[in-house]
Each structure stands twice: as structure tokens, then as C-alpha cells.
Amino acid sequence: GLSCVMLTFVITGASTGIGRGAMEDLVARGHRVIGTVRKEADAQRLRALGPQAHAVVAELTRAEDVARLAQEVRAIVGDQGLAGLVNNAGIA
Fold first, then answer.
1. Average confidence (pLDDT) over 5-20
2. What is the pLDDT of residue 4?
3. Dihedral in degrees, nearest 10, Cα atoms 66, 72, 78, 79
4. Is the dihedral angle over the CA atoms 37, 39, 45, 48 positive or is it negative?
5. Are 88 and 14 in contact (CB under 8 A)?
6. What is the pLDDT of residue 89?
7. SS (H, E, C) 18-53
8. pTM over 0.70
9. Helix (H) / strand (E) containing 86
């Protein structure tokens, strides 16, 4: 089943709250997760979750940051593709 297959997910807004919790849970289950954050310090905290935890510093309101994120995701996942996207980033 899926429990023994490593899947790759992207989670935007992964520095705190739901995004951070989802990233922690998926990494703990053995999946690879690419989380987006707006600060390098948050990226370092995400990377500390383990070798399957990747972090990209990006401001998703900037087209060039979104394009760079897409390039980084492609470089990490290659032909495997993504299992899911949690589009959690936002400001209340």
C-alpha cells in the first residue's frame, strides 16, 4: 500500500500552524515534503525535521519566486512527480 511508498508533497506556508503540522506528520510517515516559508530561519527549522524535509524560501505573491519554486520542486522530484499540494499560505 501507500504506507511503504515514499510520496512527495508541497506545502505552502509551512512555517507555523496547519502547514507546519502537516509537514511534520508527513515527514514522520516517511514522505518527502517541500515546504515554503518566507524566512531563512523558518527554512532551517523545517530542514531540521529530517532528510526528507526540504524548505524553499519564497514570497508566493511574486511571480519570480513561484517560478523558482517550480524549478526547485522539479529538481527534487524529477520524473516521480507530486502526490499532493497543500496550498496553505496566506495572511488573514
1. 94
2. 65
3. 0
4. positive
5. yes
6. 86
7. HHHHHHHHHHHCCCEEEEEECCHHHHHHHHCCCCCE
8. yes
9. strand 84-87
